[in-house]
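User: Second chain of the day. Same drill as before.
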Amino acid sequence: MTFEELKALDDAYIMHTYGRFPVDIDHGEGATLYSLSGRKYIDFTSGIGVNSLGYGNEKWMAAITAQIGKLGHISNLFYTQPGPLLARELCTRSGLSKVFFGNSGAEANEAMIKVARKYSFDKYGKGRSTVITLNHSFHGRTITTLTATGQDSYHNYFFPFNEAFRYADPTLESVQAQGGEDVCGVMLELIQGEGGVRPLDPKEVQAIADLCREKDWLLLVDEVQTGIGRTGTLFAFQQFGIQPDVVSFAKGIAGGLPLGGILTNEKCSTVLTPGTHGSTFGANPVSTAAGMAVLETLDQTFLDGVKEKGAYLRAGIEAIGSPYLGQVVGMGLMLGIDITGGRTNKEVASLLMDHGLLCLTAGDRLRLLPPLVITKDEMDQGLAILKQTLMD
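Assistant: Same format as last time:
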């Protein structure tokens, strides 16, 4: 099949909900991708932070192959091995107590909101259901998680939106100003991904966490994009000096298969009971087996390497000296670059793709989320394309 044939097929039968680039991807190895025609691309996107182990990872493929030959799916009314094994690993390494598995980031954030509202209902009764989220946040595309998203551009078309969300800036003062007797939780991304790769101030985060403890509001941390090694620790909250009540995760957990979920502390571990929540495909044996392969790979040495790779990539970008590249922000292998010199981030991303480097955009910034297994050679190739493209 040619690219033109593929594009025609896609145009004919796929709903046009994505602004696709004129690039097709057929296969990959490590952090390098190839089109149907054999065109090579260095990947600084990892499927928007999903392909944590890159492409063609042997350990990941072996785990999937072994499990799919035994059991592809069974109802959550029965016990299976991969889910509890993965849950134990997540709890042990996060310091949290229990896991609920779903399929996606939006589903995970829905579950987190439900925990906050039911915890408050069980303890205080009706009327304490408002969740404070942050301006520039993004929490998903369901009606509830769109409402939770603190960006006006998403609050259109799908009226009526759900009630009981208010929005604050990422400061103690602003969160306090949105507080009240109706609040049950505060929901944060520690680095706002879709909002423009915006790291929060750890001191403000710690102050907000203290406020939540004082008010018995649940501290809800959305780690859909920042979690599973992306910032150089298993979860970003482990670098912010806090211990959340509930944490959501997805994207990188299964290395490319659909899986997400939440982790709760002991206080919230029994909030969701039979009949109050569920997911047909949650804890799918194949996806959770893939998740175990991911976590077994992400040992301390590997995570330290993510921090080192992030520092190397940041230094390489800063050394280019292009008039179009400004400040570099972020943590680990989640980086944002200010675009200057009269060009937009989308223009720059398109130019880079033309030269063989896949990048993302977020807010006004260029966003880099390469596979965590990216090599120094692949980073150097990407940096060379960045320099060649933006110094011409």
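Residues 59-297 form a domain with the Aspartate Aminotransferase; domain 2 fold (CATH 3.40.640.10).

User: Great, on to the next one.
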